[in-house]
Design goal:
Elements lengths: L1 E4 L3 E7 L16 E5 L1 H11 L4 E8 L2 H12 L2 E9 L4 E8 L2 E7 L18 E4 L4 H13 L4 E3 L1
Parallel strand pairs: 1-4, 1-8, 2-6, 4-5, 8-9
Antiparallel strand pairs: 2-3, 6-7
């Protein structure tokens, strides 16, 4: 089993011909919305490859969080390590122009993730990312005590 811990977000990507300047209003030809967050993306890909993977983190009790968890479960990801907390899920708004991007992050539930040591039972690898430093450190410490390799993303 691989344990993945970190951000679980909903992304809104706005492709632009140029990035707006201060106080500039600009029309956007469209938007792309979907699931994101470094940990959620990593877990999703591992699940799609048939790897046994558990995701740890937090989502809000909102439509974004529930949709994200359903998507992950359909891809074979165990979401037993994801806390559902009051408030909103993480959100990223990305302004992209060719290879350049700027991002506004709303951490939301990601800052409320807790460490669940039992998730490391039978674990062969731990992947850590995300903005919640104390929880990330807690998982790293617990993995070290159990001699489980850790990869940071």
């Amino acid at each position: 089993m691989i344990l993945v811990f970190g951000n679980i977000n909903y992304d809104i990507i706005l492709p632009l011909g140029e990035l707006p300047g201060p106080h500039e209003k600009m029309a956007c030809p469209g938007a792309v919305a979907g699931f994101g967050g470094s940990a959620a993306n990593t877990a999703w890909w591992l699940g799609r490859m048939g790897m046994p993977v558990t995701l740890a983190g937090a989502v809000g009790r909102d439509l974004f969080g529930e949709a994200q968890l359903s998507n992950l479960e359909r891809s074979g990801v165990l979401v037993s390590g994801v806390d559902r907390v009051a408030g909103g899920s993480g959100l990223a708004i990305v302004f992209s122009r060719e290879k350049e991007k700027r991002m506004i992050r709303i951490p939301g539930a990601n800052i409320h993730s807790k460490v669940h040591p039992s998730l490391l039972n039978g674990c062969r690898l731990v992947y850590l990312s995300g903005i919640n430093g104390p929880a990330r450190t807690g998982y790293a410490r617990e993995a070290h005590l159990r001699d489980i390799p850790v990869v940071c993303g």
